[in-house]
Amino acid sequence: MDLELYQFSTTTVLLMLAAFYGGTYLLTLLIRKKKESTDAFMVANERIGIGLASSSMTATWIWAASFYAAATSGYTYGVSGPLHYGLWGALMILFIYPFGQRFRKLAPKAHTLGELIHARHGSSSQLILAISNVLGSTISLMVNFTAAGALVSVLSPLSFQTGVLIAGFGVLAYTFWSGFRAAVFTDFVQLVALMAIAVVIIPAVLFAMGGPSAFVTGLEGLTLEQQSFFSKTAFLEQGAPFFFAVLAYAIGNQTISQRLFAVDKEHIKSTFITATLGYGAIVIGLGMIGLLALSAGIQPMDGDTNNLIPQVVSTYLSPIMIALFFILVISSLSSTADSDLCALSAIIMADVYGKNIAKDNPDPKRMLLIGRVTMIVATMVGIIFASFALDILVMLVFVGALWGAIVFPVIASVFWDKVTNAAFTWSVVIAMIMFCLVRFELIPLTGAIAYFFEFISSIGAAVVIGLMAFAFLGIRLGVIFAIVAGVASMYYTADFLRDYTVLMASLTAFGVSTIVCTVMSLMSKAPRFDFRTISEEVQSYDNQ
Amino acid sequence: MDMKVAFYTFYILMWPALTLGVLFYICRAVWRDVKEAKKNNQGLV
Q1: In terms of residue numbers, what domain contains A543?
Q2: Residues of B whose CB is below 8 A from A219
Q3: Given Cys at both, which of A5, A17, A39, A383 links A314, Cβ 3.0 to 4.6 Å?
């Protein structure tokens, strides 16, 4: 059955947005300083407590796409759908923290992961990381502004562009002066709103749609795959690609690194565990709305499953609950957008200006100005990309591949003293080329060529599993897990994985970068690297 | 209540329940952060 959406009046929506962004701006006045410090603009006081750090990490990682995609997964794949989105997304936060502890130990005063890589290898490696971070955060900004525009245009007479503009300028207004300090502080308030509303909305939808009995009755109309918690389709099409992207998204995202360097280092583990639980609970919970819609036989408006949650909420809940849902979405996209602005400004400040233009003799005041100008430029770019609905699919694919290609070189670089700059750089370049060959099927994936890439993909799977095991269980078990995963993968993927080019391409990027980086490092005659030099090179900017 | 209905009720509502638990934990942790910052005469962020 097709449903119509509830419409707020223009005045109501404008008042809600004014209250949200105006209220957030006023909150930042509580922590604002007339003269902000350059370091604090990027990483606050470097000893943020568990509460603020975990709320910030959770709020940042939940963006508008999180629950729309989780609901789509629930609607498409049935009972296991929300799990396959929310669980692996939550693991992205969890699996980075052991490596994050290492990053923080090597470079306690860092602001970006790029600074650590610059000290380890030099500019070419650093800029590969910085470029991937910039592209990723720009895409994220655009997606969040787009979500604002879509929400406003669907629930009010206002246009899509109006929503984009209000969100863009609203986020910039409260982030501009105090940077990361403002982002972290407001993230807590936004997360409280988000969580409290989610706690109320999920049961409200369940019971408004007839309760658990009606839901169970509706399950009988689902396919066997959709009724199964162990759906092979759901795992291969949603779970596995997301699972193997876990480390890539975590390593490639400056919003995570920034929090690793900002939180009190004694609390890194508890912060990230809390954020993992919070993210998983909210996203899987809201994803259940997609499953409820499937069980009720609802058809998404315009055939777009992103409309499911607004559609269900609008149809079954009261106007007050719809208004709360509106605040939930605005909170989630704003908390991520402000983190993207902070990530972009830190990368330009530290990685571009600090390490490459000023060449380790940066002027802190100029750096701060550059950071703020970056925020303005980034907001403009995000608004323009969102307003023109530019197709960013190719850019998204490219960024995902780049992040996959840098995982092994980055992690190996902070543990293994033989990795060289050449090994890092060439492993990423060659991995990207091989990724493109598979992803865009530039060569026929048949016969020996297909077997070759399935073999490489198995190595990629082995590397991902091995790194995750290494993070928590140490090198010996990491290697054992890698070997077992690799052998199992070779057995199961031969003659099979070639039909799943998205997954195969992603694993190829991991596999190739590992092989090239390892071989080149082993063959190198360069002296072994002294990790102690990293903390000597990566310092605060205000104290220089 | 039928077992299947009970199971799916739990499956759907466990997530908002977990969310509430995490929310409570975070709020309590932030309150402690605030008290600690005041005690040390330092900024919260």
Answers
A1: 391-544
A2: 8
A3: A5
